[in-house]
Amino acid sequence: MVSSTEYGSHTWDLLLTVDHQYEDVDKEFKVTVTGDLHVGGLMLKLVERIKKAQDWSDYAFWWEQKKCWLLKTHWTLDKCGVQADAKLIFTTQHKMLRLRLPSMKTVRLKVSFSSTVFRAVSDICKMLNIRRSEELSLLKQSEGTLKKKKKKDKNSKEPATEDILNLCNSPVSSGSPANPGLYSKTMTPIYDPVSGSPASSTITWFSDGSLNEQNCSILALSHPTCSPEMLAEMYQPRTLADKAKLNAGWLDSSRSLMEQGVVEEDQLLLRFKYYTFFDLNPKYDAVRINQIYEQARWAILLEEIDCTEEEMLIFAALQAYHVSKLSLSSETQDSTCESEVDEVEAALSNLEVTLEGGSKSNILEDITDIPKLADNLKLVRPKKLALKAIKTYWFVFRDTSISYFKNKESALGEPIEKLNLKGCEVVPDVNVAAKKFGIKLLIPVADGMNEVYLRCDNEDQYARWMAACVLASKGRTMADSSYQAEVQKILSFLQMKNWTMCSQAASEPENVDMKPECFVSPRYTKKFKSKQLIARILEAHQNVSQMSLVEAKLRFIQAWQSLPEFGLSYYIVRFKGSKKDDVLGVSYNRLIRIDMATGDPITTWRFSNMKQWNVNWEIRQVAIEFDQNVSIAFTSLSADCKIIHEYIGGYIFLSTRSKDHNETLDEELFHKLTGGQE
After folding, report:
1. pLDDT at position 146, please?
2. How far apart are CA 452 and CA 379, in angstroms?
3. Which candidate, 166, 162, 161, places its Cα nearest to that of 107?
4. 3-class SS of residue 210
5. If we measure between CA atoms, which residue out of 322, 321, 267, 272 comes closest to residue 298?
6. pTM score over 0.85
7. Which helix (H) or strand (E) holds 539?
């Protein structure tokens, strides 16, 4: 018999690397350990060996080979699976990170590299004074979006570091309660709801944090626009495949930054990932509103989202005259009369995007007799050989369906056809100047989408029918409390497009100090000369000249939300059983299968009809089941399938939000819906 001492003890040597700044102290230490030593005890042994008195509370072990943190300090080395060959690095959990905001401003701040990205973004948003952090996430620029920039930048130097806003003095510790100052609902408003500037009476709230009055103004107000040269150097997607590259780099919200290969001083993009902007309030959300506006502005300038020439000029007018000029104005706007504040809050009521299936605000109103629309409209059906058949019929809109008859007198009989709009795609086809008010309906059928065009005679008729179609596509009727608000939103947008020429501005465009190339996408810069663009923008400006700064931004966001492609994130996928690649569009309330070659929608699936979704991690396939025994499965080719899975779960999570609840988030529910675990 051999005694245990003769056989050998259960101790072994573990090589530890310490990430510190001391020149007179070794970086590597060999520590003798046993398998039943817990992680906290290992930390204690190491700190005793370093022999430097400092606060080591932010340090933790990073396991290089396994790419994971050892954060459970009560676990033993055996339970963690640590053996003699493990390479452990004792390093800080909070590190410096550069974030490029939607406004293209870069901020440098200290972020937790050991928390999940979901929690890290929450901490970042507290530092930047952005409420509703669940709408944002971090994005790595994919290689495809950097190629053009690298070629252009070969002979140019990096931009000067003074462009970076340094907020590194006050790191937010993960899990610690945030200073309630800027988040408190009970305190006086912290922003002027009209100008968006910080309210002077509450600037003292900024004194303890890294976001002082000056920094707050930088993030809450828009500043000089980019040069045409800078715009030309930035990545501009030309096809759906190019647009898919924009969404390939979203980080996994359930894992930490270090686990996803992010290192100290890396640059990431902070962006609004989910297009459901909940509970916007100018009194508290000046930074948030400005950053949403900036994300919308850059998406339009870089043609990440398509819009018509008429719409582009409206966007240009709102940028050129309200956001840029008012932001640069040295005169601060004092508190305004109550009616102006009411106008801003009225505009806000049109901005909230809610998922269907949410709680109804007025149940009694919704169960009364459902109203209907009845009118003469033109029906346009695309024919072969590029011909179109246009004919006037008597249309009746009831519940979520449209029926049409030969004339009004025959409306008591059977309709020629009845179109069920639930789950359809509704696309505006409008040119106010040409008096064209069309509604394009893409209605799901067994073999794809049935395409129908409706032509209205005037703005009022268009607004009523368009609003009814939009609600019907979501399974709602005109009895829904949001119908009138939808009508007013459409009329408001049409009014902005319906401008009259200002003779003085048109005759003297050269007197206006403006670079129109900064306010429209390159496509329109090539189409028009500079003087022509100035004149056209001045035309559009006539209808938006009386707005305040915040209202101009809100109108811009509202117009962005009215675009057919708003809120769609694209991915290249291969559907099960298909022999060719398709594009999958993920929106806040639906998935759309799109033909990659033509860009036409093939099928739409609503989240409200979804029963369950999961991922087969072995073959990286996303499977979704809907009502009526409809099921789909696809593999993602342009991004990891986890990104698409998280998008779907994230939108479902956001649909559970309510104004009645406090602002604390159910992080556990988010990870259940987005984590992809059975």
Report:
1. 62
2. 7
3. 166
4. coil
5. 272
6. no
7. helix 530-541
In the structure, what pLDDT confidence band is assigned to residue 499 with cuts at 50, 70 and 90?
low
Provide the Cα torsion 322, 323, 325, 331; round to 10°: 90
Let me know the angle formed at the C-alpha of 593 by 587 and 594, rounded to the nearest 5 degrees.
105
Q: What are the pLDDT digits (tens) for 551-566?
A: 888 989 989 998 989 9
The helix/strand/coil state of 613 is: strand
Residues 283 and 503: beta-carbon distance below 8 Å:
no
pLDDT digits (tens, 9 = 90+) for 239-269: 999 999 999 999 999 999 999 999 999 999 9
Query: Model confidence over 203-218: pLDDT tens digits?
Result: 433 334 456 666 777 7
Using the Cα atoms of residue 195, residue 198, residue 200 and residue 201 in order, give the sign of their dihedral.
positive
d(CA 44, CA 50): 10
Rounded to 5, what percent of the chain is helix, strand, coil?
35, 25, 40
In the sheet with 136-139, reading across from the earlier edge strand, the strands are 136-139, 267-272, 94-100, 106-112, 164-166
| Domains, the chain, ordered by start | 11-92 (3.10.20.90), 371-478 (2.30.29.30), 569-675 (2.30.29.30)
Range 220-224 contact pairs with CB under 8 angstroms and sequence separation of 24 or more: 220/191, 220/196, 220/286, 220/287, 220/290, 221/196, 221/197, 221/286, 221/290, 221/327, 222/103, 222/290, 222/293, 222/294, 222/323, 222/324, 222/327, 222/553, 223/103, 223/327, 223/328, 224/324, 224/328
> Residue 86 above 90 pLDDT?
yes
Name which of 115-129, 156-170, 379-393, 555-569 the model is least confident about. 156-170
Q: What is the per-residue DSSP string for 237-269?
A: --SHHHHHHTTTTBPPTTSBTGGGT--TT-EEE
Q: 3-state class of 669 per DSSP?
A: helix
- What the block records as the tokens of 73 is 């300090």
Structure tokens at 260: 């996803």
Query: How far apart, in Å, are the Cα atoms of 647 and each of 57, 95, 111, 277, 510?
Result: 35, 27, 23, 15, 48
Beta-bridge partners for 11: 34
Please give the structure tokens belonging to residue 297: 């502005």
Residue 509 CB contacts under 8 Å (≥ 6 apart), including other chains: 531, 534, 535, 538
